[in-house]
Design goal:
Blueprint (H helix, E strand, L loop, with lengths): L5 E2 L4 E6 L3 E7 L2 E4 L48 E6 L14 E6 L12 H8 L2 E3 L8 E11 L7 E11 L12 E2 L39 E3 L3
Parallel strand pairs: 1-9
Antiparallel strand pairs: 2-3, 3-4, 5-6, 5-8, 6-10, 7-11, 8-9
């Protein structure tokens, strides 16, 4: 893989602090710094979109749900999914990720029952990293990689931790996802929708709905997102 913000069929790893604030991206073994909210934006060179708040996003209808990431001092929650999405045909000049252009490329589903099973966030809590995949046959171009932690530990009060990085996918892929797999933000989520409004402590279900569009059917390509 070439990199000057370039991504081909290989691993992208992001390391995060706290409640999801990513500090480092690793692509093909090369480390790239994330945005530092403690320092002035002037002079910072990063593939990551800026973020600053220490608090989670509680509303699934706010404009910041696209790419604004909150952060705190320690990741402590094991209940909830981890999702990764890429903006198809993204222009780096468009900072808002507007339009019906986002696709779900991977999600952290649970095993066991909802109230006591293993969630994607449980993996993040235990291993301090998350790995997902981008389709190998995805058409090349500029993309926003959006990874999100959705904490469900407080009944019916979801906490959203989304973040975005800018990458350029290279290669000979020609595939783009069908419209049914694409969505926009914040329209993809509903406050009363499945997977968002849920009391995990009273549920004995063995599956949980991941909010947003269906998982895109473009196999084999790697995005890794991690937290620390």
């Amino acid at each position: 893989m070439k990199f000057s913000i370039l991504l081909s069929a290989s691993a992208l790893l992001g390391q995060a602090i706290a409640h999801g604030g990513v500090t480092t991206y690793i692509l093909d073994g090369v480390t790239y710094p994330g945005f530092s909210p403690h320092n002035t934006p002037t002079g910072q060179t990063t593939i990551q979109r800026q973020w600053s708040t220490y608090d989670p996003l509680y509303s699934p209808s706010g404009s910041k749900l696209k790419c604004t990431a909150p952060y705190s001092t320690q990741w402590t929650h094991a209940e909830g999914p981890v999702m990764a999405m890429a903006k198809v045909g993204a222009s780096f000049a468009d900072p808002d990720g507007n339009g019906n252009v986002w696709l779900l490329i991977q999600s952290g589903l649970l095993s066991g029952i909802v109230r006591s099973g293993t969630w994607g966030l449980g993996t993040v809590l235990k291993t301090l990293q998350w790995t997902s995949k981008i389709p190998a046959n995805l058409a090349p171009g500029n993309y926003l990689i959006r990874h999100e932690l959705l904490a469900l530990h407080q009944a019916n009060t979801p906490q959203f931790y989304p973040e975005c990085a800018q990458v350029n996918v290279i290669g000979s892929g020609t595939r783009t996802p069908a419209g049914s797999y694409l969505t926009s933000f914040p329209e993809a989520y509903k406050a009363s929708g499945p997977g968002i409004t849920i009391d995990i402590y009273s549920s004995t279900e063995t599956t949980s709905t991941i909010p947003g569009p269906g998982l895109v059917k473009l196999p084999s390509f790697i995005l890794s997102v991690a937290t620390s």
